[in-house]
Amino acid sequence: MHAIEKILAKNSGKSMVSAGEIVTAKVDFAEINDLYLQTVYSFYEMGGEKVWDPERAAFVFDHYAPAPDMKSAANQGEMREFARKNNLRFHFDTNCGVCHQVMPEAGVIYPGMIVVATDSHTTTHGAFGAMGTGCGATDMATILITGELWFRVPEIIEVRLEGKAPKGVYPKDVILHVLGQLKADGAVYKAIDFTGSYVEGLNVAGRMVICNMAVEMGAKTAYMQPNQDVLDYVEKRAVRPYEVQVTDPDFQYEETYVFDVSSLEPQLACPHSVDNVRPLPEVLQEREVKVDQGYIGSCTGGREEDIAEAAKILRGKHIPEYTRLVVVPASSEVMLSCLEKGYIQDLMKAGATITSPGCGACLGAHEGVLAPGEVCISSTNRNFPGRMGSNQAEIYLASPAAVAASILNGRITDPRQYQ
């Protein structure tokens, strides 16, 4: 069996499962974000009285953090009351950050577990050797009542990433390139196992970026065999014992795709699709793309490593008049570390706006939404019309380094010239 199949088998009390099989499996941790108050309503409509295990469920207020309007404030108030009533051990309020960052930091994510959240980018947690997947309000209410959910065992495809990325090419560039090749429907309801020498050498942040965007290919979940960086990270934080699952050597993937990252250039996802990916230099040869806003943040591009790269490029410089750079740390832990290291100060001196940790404008809610006709280059994960505000705005997706270089020049720029 594959490691993902072993996780599903273990949690469903079976000795073996295979692709296409429907199983009912125990969920090790459930997370509800502040878009999904309906989960609470469904919980009571289905006869729920108490959450099955107050140690294994949490709300994260990240999409509207802090609340930008009365409706979101009222929703969060009802969720707080539910969390208080059920005495949930973990509760992440508007001061904490993005769910996919704060959960690993809190130690509730670890190898061999099943984590289900009301967010499609729960595939991020494959970076830790976990099975992470998203669900809707009714399924989440079922989990809160029973601690279980049905799963269809997914077919598993291998995306093998080999080689060493050149200077100026980041994990975001690598996953954008893969997306551009496999397209947005390349892995619908399948699991993606990222393997290869490049993956083996990645740090925790890089792994999270790649697994995060697996869902943009339609993947139900993602997986990476934990390396020492991951194990060290988890060992310091995990709140309960865990077991690393290993894929059997004779396991047969449904499909295998191999990419050599050694000759890769910085990549750019152009409007209005995540898989509309081209090498950044190729776009620049064709036309100049002026930008109104740069955006560094979200569960894809708001970690310390991302902010550090931007600070390195912008230190001692200043963005042009009438442009904006919005920086949204992925968590309060990230923000504190970036403050201690001077990255936030460097960016503020360069003209950046620093906002509270959370999702911010990634979903077009607040903290940097776009006006009609504006162009933004962003380190986030989606660029379809209306994603970050007006449906008449244009969004380009790139690495945080490319965002910093571009906003510094007021036009999309290859970050390698600053390295």
Question: What does this 3D model show about the protein?
Answer:
It is a single chain. The chain is of the alpha/beta class. The chain folds into two domains: about 5-260, Aconitase, domain 3 (2-Layer Sandwich), CATH 3.30.499.10; about 265-410, Aconitase, domain 3. It is built from 15 helices and 17 strands. The strands form five sheets. Strands 15-14-13-16-17 form a five-stranded parallel β-sheet. α6 runs parallel beside α8 (about 205-210) and α12 crosses α14 (about 345-350). About 55% of the residues are buried. The mean pLDDT is about 95.
How much of the sequence is in beta strands? 15-25%
Which structural category fits the helices and strands?
alpha/beta
- Largest β-sheet summary: 5 strands, parallel
Percentage of residues assigned to helices: 25-40%
What CATH first level of the largest domain would be assigned?
Alpha Beta
CATH architecture verdict of the largest domain? 2-Layer Sandwich
Tally of DSSP helical segments: 15
Distance between the termini: 44 Å
Shape: globular
Mean pLDDT: 97
Q: What strand line-up does the widest sheet have?
A: 15-14-13-16-17
Poorly predicted segments = none
- Tally of DSSP β-strands: 17
Q: What is the CATH superfamily classification of the largest domain?
A: Aconitase, domain 3
User: Per CATH, what is the topology of the largest domain?
Assistant: Aconitase, domain 3
What Rg, in angstroms, do the CA atoms define? 21 Å
Number of domains: 2
